[in-house]
Every structure is written in C-alpha cells, then in structure tokens.
Amino acid sequence: MLGKAVVQNAFFGQQQRGMATLKAISMRLKSVKNIQKITQSMKMVSAAKYARAERELKQVRPIGNGAKQFYEQAEIAPPEDVPQKLVIAITSDRGLCGAVHTSVARHIRTELAKDDQNIKVVCVGDKSKAILSRIYGKNIILACNEIGRLPPTFGDASKLADAVLKSEYKFGSGEIVYNRFKSVVSYQTSILPVYSLQSVAASPKLSIYDSLDDEVIQSYLEFSLASLLFYSMKEGACSEQSSRMTAMDNASKNAGEMIDKLTLTFNRTRQAVITRELIEIISGASAL
Amino acid sequence: MAAMRSMSRLLTSRALNTTIRRGYAEEMNFTFAAGNQVFYDGKSVKQVDVPSFSGSFGILPKHVPTLAVLKPGVVSVYEEDGGVKKIFVSSGTVTINEDSSVQILAEEAHPIENIDASAARELLTKSQSQLSSAANDQAKAEAEIAIEVSEALVKAAE
C-alpha cells in the first residue's frame, strides 16, 4: 500500500515539473523542424506525382466512359434471383493522404452493415484490407498490395481482373468503389457497376444487339472489367496524390505554426533563465 | 387563315424533324481509346473497319447494335475529310450501341507507321521459340497468343 502511494507520488512529481527546461524546448523545436522538412518534401514529391497522374487520367477517361456506355445503353439491371454481390475497393498501400482510403472503406462498411451474407469484397491496396479486415475479415475473398508506389498500368488491371474472375465467386452484380477525381481539392467516392454473364444475358434489351453468343459476351465482359478497373485505379491514384498534396501542405502549415509558438516560448524561457542567473549573482554579491 | 398557318407550322416542323433525324443518322459518335493513347473521343467519322474474332467487318453510321472482341490486326478509320488512318491493335472490344455510338477499347494501339518491320519479325521468331520451349498448357497458350499478335504485327508493318 505504502509502496503504491510512493510510486504514485513519484509519477505526479514527474508530471508537474512546471516550466519546461530550455533543453527540452530546443529538442522539441528541432524535431518539429525536421517533421516540417519531411512533410514539405513529401508535398513536393506528391505534387510531381499528381501532375503526372492527372495527365494520364485525362488519357484514360475515354476508356472508362466507353466501357461504362454499354451497361448504360443496354440497361442492364442486377438480377433479382442472384443476391450475391461483389464489391471491389480501390485504394493503395500508402497512407498520409487525408480520407481517401477511409471514405472508400466507409462506403463499403455501410453496405456490409446492411447485408453481410451476400457481399464479398476484393481489396485492392493494403489500406482497405487493414480497415475492413477488423470487422468484416470473412467477407474478403481477395486482397492485393504493391499498389500506389508506381502509377497503375493496364497490365496491373488485367492481372487483377483475371484474379477476380478466377476466384470462382459467383456474383450476380457488383460494383467498383473508387474515388473519382474532381479537382485538386476535391474527390468523390463513386461506384462503377459490374455485371456477370448471366445478368447481361438476362437483360431484355440485349436482343437488339446483333449476332451475340455467350463466348463473345464473356470475353467482352472480361475485357471491360479490366478497362473499368484500369480506369478506376487511375482515378483513385490521381485523387490520392492530390489529397496527399493538400494533407502535406496542411501539415507543413501546422508545423510552421508550432515552430513559431515554440520559438517564442524558447526565447521567453531563455530570457527568464538569464534573469534568474543575474538575480542569483547579484543577491549573492549583496549578501557578502 | 388560322388553319392554314397551323398547317404551315406543322409542315415546317416536320421538315425540321426530318433534317434533324437525317443529320443524326449520318453521324457516328466514334471513340477509340487504348491503354497508351486516345485516338478519337466522340468524333464523327465516315467508316471504321475492325478485325474481330467473328470476322472482320466495316462499321458505317446506323450499324446494327452489336458487341465484338477485337483480334490482333489493323483498324482502318475513314475520316470525314477523306483521310484514312490505320491503327494496329493488340486486343480489345468493339461496342456499337443503339444510338449509333461506337466505342473501340484496345489494350494497346499504335499507328502502323510507327511499327518497325524488322523488330516485329524478330518478335515473331522469339515467340515461336517460346512456343517450342513451353512446358505447360498455360505457357503454351501464352506463346500462341504472342505468335498471333506478332504475325499480325508483321503483316501490318509490310
């Protein structure tokens, strides 16, 4: 009992040490300055990456729109008798970029909260896996990483599409959840629809299309899945870089504010120390 | 008088309608995008010839809606001003929709003038040797596809 009280006292003694010492302040100041340097250079790096991502995104948009067009024109609807759904989360491995990954994960989480029996998730990028596996680990059928270090290519997208098709999960309909890039300061979490062969074949408007057989539709859907994934990965990468740029800009600004405050405290403390030493010397001299 | 005016209005509006419809019918909303480059985005062209697995075919405005899978080969685009552009595609899809819009999405595409014939021939021999050394079915299929693409490349470059 006594020992516990002593320990507690010592703890409190450490906590209430009053004014920070000069040494402690200068150490904090130095570390904040270092952090600011890091965030500033991260901002520069992501600004360069963002410029490239946006240039590439402009090239890819027609592919995404073209692949989407067929689903819209043919008015394909998810089949009612097949409730199984597939959700593909487009994120990346890297953090420190605002809420891009969490907003994708949140979208999926609200859907899983409604119905966690018939929805399976494919996680692209470590971040969505890390967020979703905590509660809905058993819903994840596929996860891939090493996304975000380099700009996504069509090869990556087709490998992913291949893996999704080979997973042998029978789904009626699905969606790709990604962040659509709007401008440097804003992005929107959106979905792209994906359908299986059965739901396309069951569409009433398909009869106006000429000379189709299942094999053609199957290959067509495989390729269109790859193009849609490619498009959404590009959009996601661009939103991520732009969001990281803003996040790092804010972090540098905050670090700057902190540095100002700490410099002020540092100077005040330094003055106080000098004054105290002078008082000590003077009072010592007068006592003699 | 009033009846006549309304009739004349009816006539003009119908005349207007037909011109609009005809203008619409002759237009083809053509999009040609590849993973590496976008060639056309919502442009109007005269005719497009595409190689597909169900046979090569030409697309004119008001083509019947269909879907097709592209075969390695040359897509010829006849532009409005009479020029012909020939573009090599490795694989992809063609979608012709009800509203006369055409989308060609390719994995990779290049104008044929950019193809180096000797490099294409080299690729063909390389993929042929790949086929003979293929161990399992998957490697064999991959080599066969490589041969198909490089054969088409050689043909396009000539």
Characterization of the model:
The complex is a heterodimer of chains A (288) and B (158). Chain A has 288 residues and is α/β, with parallel strands linked by helices. Chain A has a domain at 47-243: ATP synthase, F1 complex, gamma subunit (Pyruvate Kinase, Chain: A, domain 1). Helices cover 64% and strands 13% of the residues of chain A. Chain A has helices at 2-15, 22-73, 100-114, 126-136, 154-166, 197-201, 214-287, and strands spanning 85-90, 119-124, 140-144, 173-183, 186-195. A 5-stranded mixed sheet of chain A has the order 3-2-1-4-5, with helices on both faces. In chain A, strand 2, helix 4 and strand 3 (140-144) form a beta-alpha-beta unit. In chain A, helix 2 (22-73) packs antiparallel against helix 7 (214-287) and helix 3 packs parallel to helix 4. The model of chain A is unreliable at 1-17 (pLDDT under 50). Chain B is α+β, with helices and mostly antiparallel strands. Chain B has 2 domains: 26-113, Sandwich (ATP Synthase, domain 1); 115-157. Chain B has helices at 2-25, 117-132, 137-157, and strands spanning 29-34, 38-50, 57-59, 66-70, 73-79, 84-89, 92-96, 101-106, 109-111. In chain B, strands 1, 2, 3, 4, 5, 6, 7, 8 and 9 form a 9-stranded mixed sheet that branches. In chain B, strand 2 (38-50) and strand 3 form a beta hairpin. The longest helix of chain B is centred in the N-terminal third of the chain and has 24 residues, at 2-25. The interface between A and B is medium-sized, with 28 and 30 residues. Chain B: Keywords: Acetylation, ATP synthesis, CF(1), Hydrogen ion transport, Ion transport, Membrane, Mitochondrion, Mitochondrion inner membrane, Transit peptide, Transport. Chain B: This is ATP synthase F(1) complex subunit delta, mitochondrial. Chain B: Residues 116-156 form the F1F0-ATP synthase delta subunit C-terminal domain. Chain B: It holds the Pfam family ATP-synt_DE_N. Chain B: Belongs to the ATPase epsilon chain family. Chain A: InterPro entries: ATP_synth_F1_ATPase_gsu, ATP_synth_F1_gsu, ATP_synth_F1_gsu_CS.
